[in-house]
Design a protein that fits this description.
The protein is an alpha/beta fold and 179 residues long. It has two domains: 92 residues, Formyl transferase, N-terminal domain (Rossmann fold, 3-Layer(aba) Sandwich), CATH 3.40.50.170; 84 residues, Formyl transferase, N-terminal domain (Rossmann fold, 3-Layer(aba) Sandwich), CATH 3.40.50.170. The termini are close together. The structure holds 5-O-phosphono-beta-D-ribofuranosylamine. 5-O-phosphono-beta-D-ribofuranosylamine binds next to helix 1, strand 5 and helix 6.
Length: 179
Amino acid sequence: MIGVLVSGTGTNLQTLLDAELPVRAVASNKADAPALARASHLPNASFELADYASRAERDTAMADWLQAQGVELVVLAGYMHILTPAFLERFPARVVNVHPSLLPEFPGAHAVADQLAAGAAEAGVTVHLVDEDVDTGPILLQERVPVQAGDTVETLHARIKEVEHRLLPAAVEELLCAH
Ligand code: GRF
């Protein structure tokens, strides 16, 4: 059973739902994340940092809730907080992230803008297992996305997302089969 963590619009979550992967629960660090509305038919919950004494306590509560829903594999689909060991230790080698660059190039929260600012000829998508550092961890799938003349953050991100929407469900399906 899959649990998905979201912070934003949730288009990657939508592709997992459309692919009929066994998404069992959706959680967010933001109560008003538009992505949560896509999961209104599923168990869903928000875990705002402000409601907890520490990030580790928030992550423990989120892991408790996901495991109570039967979640064994966690997918970060535009989840914009760093997960602490308190969370990762609960799902060893079972947390997957999708990132909009060819990692290890351009980690971090502004990867699309950073690639444009650096004049990169190609951007890309990486699906990887999450470890305790930011945007590191074993790479599962990766694909290049050429940068076009005149690209803005919006146009480049839109083309990157098209690739994300193909790669993320494929990687998740593979992980489920391999287990
Ligand atoms: C994606 O580009 C993902 O790579 C990045 O945040 C974006 C989330 O988009 N980490 P969405 O919320 O799935 O539409």
